[in-house]
Amino acid sequence: MKKLISIHSFRGGTGKSNITASVASLVARAGHRVGVIDTDIHSPGIHVIFRLEEDRVKLALNDYLWGKCRIEEAAYDVTSALGAERDPGTERAKLFLIPSSVKTGEIARVLREGYDVGLLSDGFRRVAEALDLDYLFIDTHPGVNEETLLSIALSDLFLLIMRPDRQDFQGTAVTVELARKLEVRDMRVIINKIPSTVDWERLRSQVESAYHTPVVGMMPLNSEVAQLASSAVFAVLNPDHPFTLGLKQVAKSVIAPSP
Amino acid sequence: MSPCAPVRSGSGRPFPTRAWPRGGLVVTERRVVLYLLESAHGPPLQYWSFDNEQLIRVGRSIENQVVVANPYVSRAHCYLLLTEQGWSLNAISDQGIFVRSEKLEQLPLVPGLVFRMGRNGPFLRFGNLIDTGMEKETLEADDPLSEMLQLDKSRVQREVAEITQGDFFQRLKTRVESLRGTQNPDPDKTMLPTR
Fold first, then answer.
1. B1: Cβ–Cβ under 8 A, 6 or more apart, which residues?
2. Cα–Cα distance for residue pair A176/A207, rounded to 1 Å
3. Three-state DSSP class for B56?
4. Interface test mutation site (partner B, options A126, A144, A156, A202, max chain B beta carbons within 10 A)
5. Residue A256 zone, left/alpha/beta (φ > 0; ψ -120 to 50; rest)
6. Cβ contacts (< 8 Å) between A218 and chain B: which residues?
7. What's the pTM?
8. How far apart are the first and last CA of chain A?
9. How confident is the model at residue B9 (pLDDT cuts 50, 70, 90)?
């Protein structure tokens, strides 16, 4: 595996799952084998974007965490979400999703009992080997908790998504500091839902100087994205949309070697 | 300069220079902004801003400062030129520039003016503050970035300390170190006891 990437946001509603789905798809379309793990066990959702039907899901990440299966048995090939048109030389492209269970009983069990986060970190390595992955994306649960911090600490790249508002700015600063304490080497910020009234370059430099972290993607607040994004991979459906431009920059930054 | 979403800057008056009152960064108003619009009256999709430029070339080819990837746009379509009379827009290609369905070779640019690149091409707006109808004073009082990007650093430090001094964080750190140290770990050793 070339890179393990954790994607996180301090609060919900930043577009984290949509961005994860699009960036993972763009990286895969560049000719890589990519996996996405939905560790947002409390509120799973990314399977909808990849159009993985719920009745196709016989085993989920939860089953692996309860010791019922190997993690690769909970992986589903969702390469069809990448669209039919591909560039030559990208035949290696594959996309897998390890979904979280949408069954309320399973969600309740996680909330009640918790799970062993060590098993989760084992699963990352194991699934990358079993599926011969180049990149593995971890869609994390918003907020700061043990599972999320562990995923962040074990990743090669930590992508933080924020909206340009005061609460996100403040909360993300805490996450950045925690990641530093955990010696996360490669941390980058994505700013989403930027209103049209904002000066982008000024926003970028303010965030970069406050966090001492590069901003690798900036995306506008856009009603089309809100309408379309949750039912399909936005970047695949809308390759030339301004929103996709920001996502492509993120994908490029993921593929580039870490400093 | 990179294609971005819209910016709010500039005053519409001929280029006074002013520092933002809050937020620490100086943004001058000697700036020209071109917006690519969704439709004639639609929201901006992308913008290009320039400081202290005199000539700005617009077209489909990447040699232009403003690259508009659209089949109705010529490779070298038009250019903006700053003269003593202010900014003017000048057509290069026969596709021309259209303002309210009228094909023009050259026209003076005023903030807020929307023009079309070719008869069926995309709409651009030459713009800055005036087209939002905002006065300078209103902007200073209501600068959205100054409001949203005020970091309470002592609160950050306090919250970080609360988390990192807790037992769970220390345990996590130890666990992370052991997991990082082993490439193919024995699962029994990597799984620490559950809480």
1. B48, B49, B50, B65
2. 12
3. strand
4. A202
5. beta
6. 4-5
7. 0.67
8. 17
9. very low
Rounded to 5 degrees, what are φ and ψ at A186?
-120, 105
List the structure tokens of A259. 């400093």
Strands B86-91 and B106-108: antiparallel
3-class DSSP assignment, residue A147: helix
Could you give the C-alpha distances from A220 to A159, A194, B38, B142, B146, in angstroms and in order? Answer: 18, 5, 13, 20, 19
- Of A236, A254, A241, A220, whose CA–CA distance to A49 is shortest? A236
| Burial tier of B41 (Cβ tally within 10 Å: 0-12, 13-18, 19+) | exposed
Q: Answer left, alpha or beta for residue A132, where phi above 0 means left and psi between -120 and 50 means alpha.
A: left
Give chain B's radius of gyration (CA, Å): 26
Chain A residue with Cα closest to B148: A166
pLDDT tens-digit readout, B18-28: 333 333 233 33
Structure tokens at A171: 């909360």
Taking CA atoms, B95 is separated from B70, B74, B83, B120, in Å, by 13, 7, 24, 9
